């Protein structure tokens, strides 16, 4: 990804759902931030625990903790970007910081990095996500062709975590289904199986999920439905039982 690091501050925070907190972050250094990057990701650099300032040297002896987040919105006039943080589901330096974040808090933004999904020419898409990847879905729904058939499944554990997406009403072939379940390994896989069984052509599949669920669906698509590997775009956003630093969690 682009190695440029921009200093920023928190402009506003909003609890948009029980497990989602939206932060608008701004900086004069965003004056040349590209405007077409909804759905792309940035690296958020945070202060070390107990500190206010952020180390922006990525090669420092003690570099800043950093995590990847997908862009929800970009305001080129006010030089801000909007990011959503999952809170109260997992513990970690980024989620803990976001939960307590307030206007004026300092951070830094590196990127943007490339979009995972680059092919917007297909006629059938299947997109699968969880709470961590809502903004990737949100960004791509604004770019997929109106003529394409698009099935989106977003699985969540709490029905109150359903949020509005920037869908385009004229794109009537785009269907978003929020699947509320505490057993995604069963319920999500079952729903994917139904959809794959119904398609008359091979879809392009985009997935941004927990690692083990992603592997299960990928194997299902390849082994049972002969989906070519090149038509599967996937990213393991997190791994159950392991934190973002690779340490085992309780």
TrEMBL record:
FAD-binding FR-type domain segment(s): 3-119
InterPro entries: FAD-bd_FR_type, FNR_nucleotide-bd, Riboflavin_synthase-like_b-brl, SIP_FAD-bd, SIP_fam, SIP_rossman_dom
One Pfam family per UniProt: FAD_binding_9
Family label: Belongs to the SIP oxidoreductase family.
Protein name, per record: Siderophore-interacting protein
Species of origin: Pseudoalteromonas haloplanktis (Alteromonas haloplanktis)
């Amino acid at each position: 990804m682009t190695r440029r690091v921009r200093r920023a501050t928190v402009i506003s925070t909003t609890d948009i759902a029980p497990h989602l907190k939206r932060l608008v972050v701004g900086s004069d250094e965003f004056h040349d931030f590209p405007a077409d990057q909804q759905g792309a990701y940035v690296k958020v650099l945070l202060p070390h625990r107990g500190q206010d300032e952020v180390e922006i040297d990525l090669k420092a002896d003690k570099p800043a903790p950093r995590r990847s987040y997908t862009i929800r919105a970009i305001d080129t006039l006010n030089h801000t970007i909007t990011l959503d943080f999952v809170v109260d589901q997992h513990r970690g330096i980024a989620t803990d910081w976001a939960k307590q974040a307030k206007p004026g808090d300092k951070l830094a933004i590196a990127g943007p990095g490339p979009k995972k999904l680059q092919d917007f020419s297909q006629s059938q898409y299947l997109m699968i996500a969880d709470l961590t990847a809502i903004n990737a879905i949100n960004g791509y729904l604004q770019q997929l062709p109106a003529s394409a058939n698009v099935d989106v499944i977003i699985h969540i554990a709490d029905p109150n975590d359903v949020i509005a997406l920037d869908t385009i009403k004229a794109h009537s072939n785009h269907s978003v289904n929020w699947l509320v379940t505490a057993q995604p390994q069963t319920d999500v896989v079952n729903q994917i199986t139904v959809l794959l069984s119904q398609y008359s052509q091979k879809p392009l599949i985009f997935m941004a999920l927990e690692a083990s669920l992603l592997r299960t669906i990928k194997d299902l698509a390849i082994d049972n439905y002969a989906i070519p590997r090149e038509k599967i775009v996937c990213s393991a956003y997190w791994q159950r039982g392991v934190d973002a630093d690779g340490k085992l969690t309780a």
